[in-house]
Amino acid sequence: SLYVSEYFSQSAQKLSFYSWYGNAKLFHFHVPEDTVLLRWLLQASRGKGPECTSMEITVHFRHGAPPVINPLGTRFPANATVRPSYNISITLGSAVQNTTFVNVTTPAAGDWFIAAHLPEAAGRIEVKGFSTPCPYMFQADMFVLRLTDMPVLEPGVPMPHTVVSPAKPLHVKVFVPKHAAGMRFQLSSCVTSEQRACAVRVLLGSITLPQSFQRSLTCTGSINCSLALDSPPWEKWLQIMVESLGTANASVSVEMLASFTVCRPGSTSSFLNFVSLNQSQAGARPGAAGSSAPAAGEAPRNASGPRSSCLQSQPVVREDLDVVSVRYRLLNGPGVPVSSLSPTLLLLNLNTGMDSGGSLVVNLLLNKTSVSLANATVAACVSAASPVLSLNATRNCSTAFSQGYPLSVSTSSAEATLIVLYPQTDDWFLSLQLLCPKGQRDCSSAEAKVTVFAYLTPCFNDCGPYGQCSLLRRHGYLYAGCSCKAGWGGWSCTDGTKAQSVGTQNLATLLLTLSNLMFLPAIAVAVYRFYLVEASVYTYTMFFSTFYHACDQPGVAVMCIMDYDTLQYCDFLGSVVSIWVTILCMARLKKILKYVLFVLGTLLIAMSLQLDRRGVWNMMGPCLFALIIMVTAWVHHGAKRRHCYPSSWKRWVFYLLPGITLAFTAISVYAFMETNENYYYTHSIWHVLVACSVAFLLPPRDKHKKPWAWSQKLTCRYQICQNDREELYAVT
């Protein structure tokens, strides 16, 4: 046999602390056919700075779709099926780098996904630039060993083969046809080269994670051994590995035989249904619309006659709506007839490679008037790769190499819903059959009508009222995740264990918005002292900060007067410009120079905020530059007057020192104390402290200007003007 090794690599990604699925870094690989060995090379590293500590990285694996993970231990939505992911932990201790290998023998071909993340996020809000977070990097590489000339086992034809040694197992493959109800594998004529007792182990199927249903068969002696499989995967290559359990130098000769039991499908519709499609759906291929395209051309069945086929297929049209958004439409209407003689089968096509990043929702609604037997139950199974063709009372929904998802409806419980999170890339099948409590003979002529609604959505229920559905991307692959708000958690933001009450949400909104009214004293002081430009800036800041925080709320107490991004930009711009004009006003510059700096600084601040809205230097840069201008101006004034400036000790004690104290306290709260839990009151404290500091720091008005006196400014009466001109004439 000729083996070929291949290597696949993806760029390293910076890991994040986990708070929602978007924090997990996803790696997407494609394993080729006939792969006999898969090896993952996982490399994790961290920075060398003092802020870097020991860290545990969790890595999840899954075949066919992104792994469904729950590091926070939150609840999933009702009716959602969750199977734990296969994961390993990588510890970064004293060593800066860690290299880990993960081997998978006979892996399933197709898409494989790896998700890596750090532990739960602490919830602290860090200002960009104040602290340097430690970089934790992760990279996944994939090595595959592929067999280029894997022998093909033809159905019904015995094939002799030789296992050279235990170190070199034999790999063969067989193609499973469509509508295969069962498969039987038989091994016979087992002979060793040393004429000893024959001992071999046969492994059927490939390994998939997180769950693997690989079937094992151990054969000893010359006795024939066989293994029967129900519902093998349709239209796929099935790998078979035979390994010797004998001595190291002994070869084993065996003869293998694979046979299939094929199910003849029936149809409940005629080809005329396809012709009745409207023009917008005329391009759909009949073969892709139904689970059995050849049967679509048969004559419609006689509803009163018995069904002779082992399954009845219903034609289904896949309708793509948007990214990771698909609707399945039954050509005969949503009502599906279900009997007890043979299961009714619906094909849900999810094999495009771009459908595994959403949620598959299947809803069944029983028409109670259509069931003649009161105690009858309609059992249903949703499975991938192959349908469940034998639904009995146990309803375990298992196929040859996978475990399906059971559903049931009855007159007492007429509705059932199933949510499959991140369904694997494959053909999915919905099987329905009528079951009677006293046996199938009691309801051989009975029939039930079940309304079926099936669709693929990016986020189930659009993440609810307390979540936001975000479309994530890794290279060309798209998948969706829910980002929860107001203390809600869970996969679809349905876990209200730590949720904020409506009263708490209203209180948070009121605190964050009404705290901006503390700018009113600063505006009044500025107007009283003739700082009209400064007062206009404070009014602008108060207005947009109030409505930005009214729009930024995570719960139900939300009001947006314009686009969120516009409100956020105006709020940030007003905050920085307010600091800029206040410090320049304290410098007591000449009017023309002060207003030039006002305009020029505002333009530069607007540009920097457009480049990086959350950068700390967007605020610290203008502050430091304005402080340099103010200190320079104060030194100039002091040197010119030959005493300290400002000269009044009352100005320092009652105005400047309280204002500086409030400003530094506000900066400390903003930079070091804010978390996701206390944001609504710590940020409100920031609003109050900044607004009060402005009122204290504004300098007094110029001495030659009088305070506002409306009776003098707005007059309508005559005034006697005094002529101060000197009379330059000579008296003679």
Automatic annotation (TrEMBL):
Membrane topology: Multi-pass membrane protein
Cellular component, GO annotation: plasma membrane
Subcellular location: Cell membrane
Disulfide bonds: C459-C469, C484-C493
Entries under Pfam families matching the protein: DUF3522
The keyword Heme appears for this protein: no
Keywords for the protein's UniProt record, in alphabetical order: Cell membrane, Disulfide bond, EGF-like domain, Membrane, Transmembrane, Transmembrane helix
Keyword DNA-binding set for record: no
Positions with biased composition (Low complexity): 285-301
TM stretches of this protein: 507-531, 592-611, 617-636, 652-673, 679-698
EGF-like domain ranges (all copies): 455-494
Source superkingdom: Eukaryota
Main location: membrane
Region annotation (Disordered) ranges: 285-313
InterPro entries: EGF, NGX6/PGAP6/MYMK
Family: Belongs to the TMEM8 family.
Protein name: TMM8A factor
